[in-house]
Amino acid sequence: MTASAAELAEAYFTAWQERDFTRLRSLLADEVSFAGPLATIEGADECVAGLEGMAQVLDKIEVKERLADGPSVITWFDLHTTIAEPAPTANWMRVEDGLISEIRVAFDPRGILAARG
């Protein structure tokens, strides 16, 4: 049975927060594309590497709302890091053939960028 887009989004955020990068990789299509204020990435392995890097400063993900419409999911959450104030964040995902194929993220990165110097 194939997971719904909302279930895949929940599994993605759980795996990222738990730093289970093997599980996280299994949710991504090989050709996944990621675009956000800190990076634009093509490919699942590169995407996982980027999320591993961000996990070094990740404290927690506080999901406020998740809305799904067919293959698309938007998750609104507060991104808590160890280096900056929480950043309200919107994450849009598209699911194709039971895997996450596109990820777009929007948040104000100034606190994180300032802390990283």
UniProtKB/TrEMBL annotation:
Q: Where is the SnoaL-like domain?
A: 9-102
Record's SUPFAM superfamilies?
NTF2-like (SSF54427)
Q: Which Pfam families match?
A: SnoaL_2
Q: What is this protein called?
A: DUF4440 domain-containing protein
Q: Which organism is it from?
A: Nocardioides luteus
